[in-house]
Write a structure and sequence with these properties.
alpha+beta, 4-stranded antiparallel β-sheet
Length: 330
């Protein structure tokens, strides 16, 4: 690890100003992702601005039944929070599916959203990687591709986003609150992440110096049922091969609302809008669920070695929807 300077932020505005003014500065919170990458040589900031002690660790109710989650709330605390468990059980389950207990005790809400891909080529500085060093190539193309994207990828990058929490928050229509030198702005999470295109080194729409201060969730639909299911190679401390966050509301034998996001299949948490369109207004039957899954996956473009993800994603999505429909029946 190269030498670096350290500064503890005393307030949000000064932290933003310091990082904005220095192109080689970075924010530090839990450090569970950044410090790993510094050790590997993936990144080399020469100044770390510690924002972990700023007063951004609250979970507060919003008018209308929503909730505001501070950027510094630890993953374990968020998963165990009474409001989250009662109103957003899929989010609690997603958080508990991620990493290990020790890491969840340290990782923060903002850090979880901003974690980089776990592509083995991105983390190996001896291999070409457009995400790590633009213009060098993508080693995953023609390489080991089991964990890589089947949706939304490009010829420049096929890596997937690793977060479980972000998948659930995408399904929940989360909004990210960001502070910059000009003030505060809000970005819907569906617009927060970028697809790789020809600039895979940019994961999000954030500019250098932007600081995530909170995430806001709207009130869930009345009578909804939700779930998060993660398929992985081992029972814990493993990233998703495929994951599904889904929420259904069923009234009078018809699906009146549906929100779905997929993990492990794309460069960002993948909002399954095509599947949602098929579900809305339809009866909650096996045929409907299968049609929804097939509609979403029609555009999938697997790589040699991850073709199985199409079948796996379809089966997991149909299974989750079937379970939710069963819970909604009297």
């Amino acid at each position: 690890m190269i030498p670096f300077d350290y500064e503890r932020a005393t307030d949000v505005d000064s932290a933003v100003a310091t990082v904005t003014a220095d192109p080689r500065a970075a924010f530090l919170a839990g450090g569970t992702n950044l410090v790993d990458h510094m050790k590997l040589g993936v990144v080399a900031p020469h100044l770390l601005v510690d924002v972990s002690r700023l007063p951004l660790d609250g979970v507060d109710a919003l008018p209308g039944g929503g909730v505001r989650i501070g950027a510094a709330v630890r993953n374990s605390d968020l998963a165990a929070h009474d409001v989250v468990r009662a109103r957003y059980p899929m989010l609690s389950r997603a958080l508990l599916s991620g990493a290990s207990g020790q890491l969840r005790n340290l990782a923060t809400t903002a850090g979880n959203l901003l974690q980089r891909t776990r592509c083995v080529y991105f983390q190996d500085v001896t291999t070409p990687c457009n995400k790590r060093e633009p213009g060098t190539g993508c080693s995953a193309l023609g390489g080991y591709a089991r964990y890589h994207a089947i949706l939304g990828a490009s010829e420049h990058c096929v890596a997937v986003h690793p977060s479980d929490m972000a998948v659930a928050m995408t399904a929940l229509d989360a909004v990210v609150v960001v502070r910059d030198t000009g003030g505060e702005r809000r970005i819907p999470l569906r617009e927060f992440y970028r697809l790789p295109g020809d600039r895979p080194n940019r994961d999000t729409v954030l500019r250098h110096g932007d600081l995530v201060t909170a995430v806001e969730l709207p009130a869930p639909p009345a009578g909804n049922r939700s779930a998060y299911r993660k398929v992985r190679d081992r029972a814990s401390f493993a990233f998703a091969v495929v994951s599904v966050a889904a929420e259904l509301t069923i009234d009078d034998a018809s699906i009146t609302s549906a929100r779905i996001a997929l993990g492990g299949v794309a460069h960002r948490p993948w909002r399954a809008t095509r599947a949602e369109e098929v579900l809305l207004g339809s009866p909650p039957t096996e045929d409907t669920f299968t049609a929804a899954a097939e509609s979403e996956l029609a555009a999938a473009q697997p790589l040699p070695g991850n073709e199985f993800k199409i079948v796996l994603t379809r089966r997991v999505l149909v299974s989750v929807l079937r379970s939710l429909a069963g819970e909604a029946r009297p």
